[in-house]
């Protein structure tokens, strides 16, 4: 059902979760005009904001565009109504994943492996993170050339970077996420 | 001016961009700036942590802030992503007592009071060396070098925190490069996104974005692109490995420009994927 009927429920939900005054959008297109990820998107940022206001929850959550976003925040700083659009997108991603509606899980998967590595070692273990991601994607040779040139220049290490207080790191993850 | 700073290298400066760290150490030593690496620092979570969980992102940054405070001096973070995360968290916990208390619980037994300032490499060179000393101390003539200043996305694009320079048209690095004696070109891509957050997940997209930046620099007649950010440097420097067959310009770290002005050469020339040889030939004895 459209939220124009049931009282802007989705808009309220998003404004509460982001702390942003999303309803202030007057569709000036500045966010869309500056977006470097636009060619990858199924619809544009100003339209996403419109969908939020109109209560088109499914359209927003199942879009590909929320996953194409680079989080460069050009849209946010240019918004004349001071809406942090990149934060709205970031928040939609979290809801989409939670409700099993995410259309493109690559970014999410990579970010999770990245964080697993930080939780375990304290610092990013690049090789492990990349290999786990590549295994999941069953893409074994796609980036071989890039990896080889980096290794030849000494720019890709093979070993993990362990901090001393790994117990504290594990506890930090649990406390920060559990509260 | 002699100064001591707490130093947060971040993951890049210990792996893919070790030569950036060596370059910074070299020129900072020359200008009398001492760096104290924070003991047992951990990853700031970069773009991954806050995307998955906002509070986790703040907690990872808060842990390093707490460790840095022990050094009782301001914090220097050369990586733009690390700098952004540390600065945003530092200022947010200053103004949000609930968040502050949550973060201190997450990082126990460590505690942060958010008392120190977080600085990037441009601010450090501005605050502790200054354009006048930079201009006076240079030993090599870089006036034949044309460069474009590439700040990258995250250095000043901050929504709820006041950035150190303009959000759309920063000029602090332009002034430093000018003081070092280079010709600084005007260009529209100072802050254009290189696509770093998608290098592995959407290579084609990253390639397209980085290609545009490189093409613009070439069109304007630059000899090199200069950036303070290890993610921007890596992405642009990887272009030939990502399949770019057209000419590519070398991508220098800001500190490497200072190496050229002071010593006429760069320690990390061999770590660049795109050769800097042609550009280096333009460096002259003063």
Q: What does this protein look like?
A:
- The complex is a heterodimer of chains A (179) and B (286).
- By secondary structure, chain A is mostly helical.
- Chain A folds into 2 domains: 3-98, Alpha-helical ferredoxin (Fumarate Reductase Iron-sulfur Protein, Chain B, domain 2), CATH 1.10.1060.10; 106-178, no CATH class.
- Chain A is built from 12 helices and no strands.
- In chain B, strands 2-1-3-4 form a 4-stranded parallel β-sheet. In chain B, strands 7-6-8-9 form a 4-stranded parallel β-sheet, with helices on both faces. Chain B has a two-stranded antiparallel sheet with strand order 5-10.
- Chain B is an alpha/beta fold.
- In chain B, helix 1 crosses helix 11, helix 2 (46-52) packs across helix 3 and helix 3 (54-69) crosses helix 5 (97-106).
- Chain B contains 12 helices and 10 strands.
- At the A-B interface, helix 7, helix 8, helix 9, helix 10 and helix 11 of A face helix 2, helix 3, helix 5 and helix 9 of B.
Largest sheet of chain B: 4 strands, parallel
Query: In percent, how much strand structure appears in the residues of chain A?
Result: under 5%
The low-confidence runs of chain B, each spanning 5 or more residues with pLDDT under 50, are none
> Which stretches of chain A are low in confidence, meaning pLDDT under 50 for 5 or more residues running?
none
What is the distance, rounded to the nearest whole angstrom, between the alpha carbons of the first and last residues of chain A? 34 Å
**Largest interchain contact:** A-B, 58 and 61 residues
Secondary structure class of chain A reads mainly alpha
N-to-C order of helices and strands of chain A: HHHHHHHHHHHH
What is the overall silhouette of chain A?
Answer: globular
The proportion of residues in beta strands of chain B is 5-15%
Query: Briefly, what CATH class of the largest domain in chain B?
Result: Alpha Beta
Averaged pLDDT of chain B, please?
Answer: 95
The total count of strands of chain B amounts to 10
Looking at the overall shape, the CATH architecture of the largest domain in chain A is Orthogonal Bundle
Distance between the termini of chain B: 24 Å
Q: In CATH terms, what is the architecture of the largest domain in chain B?
A: 3-Layer(aba) Sandwich
Radius of gyration of chain A: 19 Å
The SSE string of chain B, one letter per element, is EHEHHEHHEHHEEHEHEHEHHE
Question: How many domain units of chain A?
Answer: 2
Spell out the CATH superfamily of the largest domain in chain A.
Answer: Alpha-helical ferredoxin
């Amino acid at each position: 059902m459209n939220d124009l009927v049931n009282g802007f429920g989705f808009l309220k939900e998003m404004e509460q979760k982001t702390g942003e005054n999303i309803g202030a959008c007057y569709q000036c297109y500045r966010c869309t005009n500056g977006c470097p990820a636009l060619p990858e998107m199924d619809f544009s940022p100003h339209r996403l904001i419109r969908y939020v206001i109109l209560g088109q929850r499914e359209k927003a959550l199942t879009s590909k565009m929320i996953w194409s976003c680079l989080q460069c925040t050009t849209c946010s700083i240019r918004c004349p109504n001071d809406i942090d659009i990149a934060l709205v997108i970031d928040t939609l991603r979290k809801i989409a994943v939670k409700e099993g509606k995410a259309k493109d899980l690559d970014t999410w998967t990579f970010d999770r492996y990245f964080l697993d590595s930080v939780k375990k070692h304290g610092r990013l273990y690049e090789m492990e993170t990349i290999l786990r991601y590549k295994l999941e994607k069953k893409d074994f040779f796609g980036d071989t050339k890039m990896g080889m040139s980096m290794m030849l220049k000494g720019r890709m290490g093979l070993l993990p970077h362990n901090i001393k207080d790994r117990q504290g790191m594990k506890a930090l993850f649990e406390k920060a996420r559990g509260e | 001016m002699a100064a001591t700073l707490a130093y947060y290298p971040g993951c890049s400066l210990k792996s893919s961009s070790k030569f950036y760290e060596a370059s910074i150490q070299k020129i900072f030593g020359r200008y009398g700036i001492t760096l104290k690496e924070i003991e047992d620092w951990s990853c700031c979570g970069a773009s991954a942590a806050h995307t998955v969980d906002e509070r986790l992102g703040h907690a990872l940054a808060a842990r390093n802030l707490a460790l840095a405070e022990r050094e009782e001096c301001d914090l220097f973070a050369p990586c733009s992503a690390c700098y952004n995360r540390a600065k945003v968290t530092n200022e947010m916990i200053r103004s949000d007592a609930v968040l502050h208390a949550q973060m201190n619980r997450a990082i126990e037994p460590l505690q942060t009071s958010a008392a120190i300032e977080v600085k990037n490499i441009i601010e450090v060179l501005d605050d502790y060396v200054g354009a006048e000393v930079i201009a006076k101390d240079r030993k090599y003539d870089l006036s034949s070098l044309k460069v474009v200043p590439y700040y990258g996305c995250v250095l000043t694009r901050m929504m709820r925190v006041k950035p150190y320079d303009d959000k759309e048209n920063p000029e602090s690095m332009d002034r430093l490069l000018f003081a070092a004696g280079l010709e600084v070109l005007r260009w529209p891509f100072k802050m254009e996104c290189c696509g770093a957050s998608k290098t592995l997940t959407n290579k084609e997209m990253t390639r397209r974005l980085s290609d545009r930046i490189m093409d613009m620099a070439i069109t304007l007649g630059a000899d090199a692109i200069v950036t303070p950010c290890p993610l921007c440097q890596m992405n642009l420097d990887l272009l030939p490995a990502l399949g770019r067959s057209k000419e590519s310009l070398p991508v220098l770290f800001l500190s490497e420009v200072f190496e050229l002005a002071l010593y006429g050469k760069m320690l990390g020339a061999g770590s660049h994927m795109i050769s800097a040889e042609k550009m280096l030939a333009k460096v002259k004895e003063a």
